[in-house]
Specification:
By secondary structure, this protein is mainly alpha-helical. Among the domains are: 143 residues, 3-Layer(aba) Sandwich (Rossmann fold); 38 residues. 54% of the residues lie in helices and 11% in strands. Helix 3 runs parallel beside helix 4 and helix 6 crosses helix 10.
Length: 261
């Protein structure tokens, strides 16, 4: 984008070398000071568990007008950690979560059009001024996304239902194939789009998803308990051959999906 300088920071040299070779950023550095000094906007794209520590390290080099945002998939913990620290030290933090991406990890899987027609949740628990919230919204609009402003608690409850629990069930489906103790070659020969589509998301980084799930456990667990009760009901319907009730159960699931997607 003309007139915009992009700086990229990473702990390891390998992703920086990849970005440097392809000219993805104007500055690619392992030095936080070089990355954030004089920046108008800082976007945290590391695992959410590292945000607070990073903020404490780079906060000293931020200008008073610099806005910090993020792409983390949990928001309550981010506002309580990095957001609170930045506010306490006189800096500006506005939470962001773009609902876009894939199970693939690393800069080599980056997509230029990733945020086109995506929805980005904006949260403001640390009470940044409206002008700063508007600037973060404008940033996402420039990348082709639309913005949905909500509270951190509402965000975390929504993503528990539409992202985090589905991830757990994708993992359960993949584990079920393992627990069935069928020949792996036979499973591979017959597995098709249904299995691949259902389990795709659990191919994401286990380390990253451990971070996400533990940090949103408070929102996930009540919904998970409800879902476990629903599974127990399903098991009873199957055991007792209650076809009409099973069909109704499946119809409700279909209706739920079609009302959301």
């Amino acid at each position: 984008m003309p007139g915009v300088e992009i700086r990229l920071w990473a702990r390891r040299e390998a992703p920086l070398a990849f970005a440097r070779e392809r000219r993805l950023a104007d500055i690619c550095s392992q030095e936080l000071k070089e990355a954030v000094s004089g920046a108008e906007l800082v976007v945290l794209c590391t695992p959410t568990g590292t945000f607070a520590n990073l903020a404490e390290k780079f906060g000293q080099w931020l200008g008073k007008e610099t806005i910090v945002t993020d792409v983390g998939s949990t928001k309550g913990n981010v506002h309580a950690g990095a957001g609170s620290y930045l506010k306490k030290t006189g800096h500006i933090f506005v939470g962001s979560h773009p609902m876009a991406g894939s199970e693939k990890q690393g800069i080599e899987h980056a997509q230029a059009d990733l945020f086109q027609k995506a929805v980005v949740a904006i949260t403001n628990e640390n009470r940044a001024d409206e002008g700063s919230v508007a600037r973060v919204s404008d940033f996402w609009h420039l990348l082709g996304a639309s913005v949905f402003q909500t509270s951190a608690a509402c965000h975390d409850g929504i993503v528990a239902l539409i992202s985090h629990i589905p991830h757990l069930y994708a993992a359960l489906a993949a584990r079920a194939a393992m627990l069935g103790k069928m020949d792996a070659n036979d499973l591979r020969a017959m597995a098709s789009t249904g299995f691949r589509d259902t389990t795709r998301v659990c191919s994401g980084s286990p380390e990253l998803w451990t971070d996400i799930l533990t940090q949103n456990a408070e929102a996930i667990c009540p919904f998970l308990e409800q879902s476990i009760a629903d599974q127990q009901r399903l098991q009873q319907l199957l055991k007792e051959g209650r076809r009409e009730e099973l069909q109704q159960w499946l119809s409700e699931a279909k209706q739920s999906r079609e009302s959301i997607c």
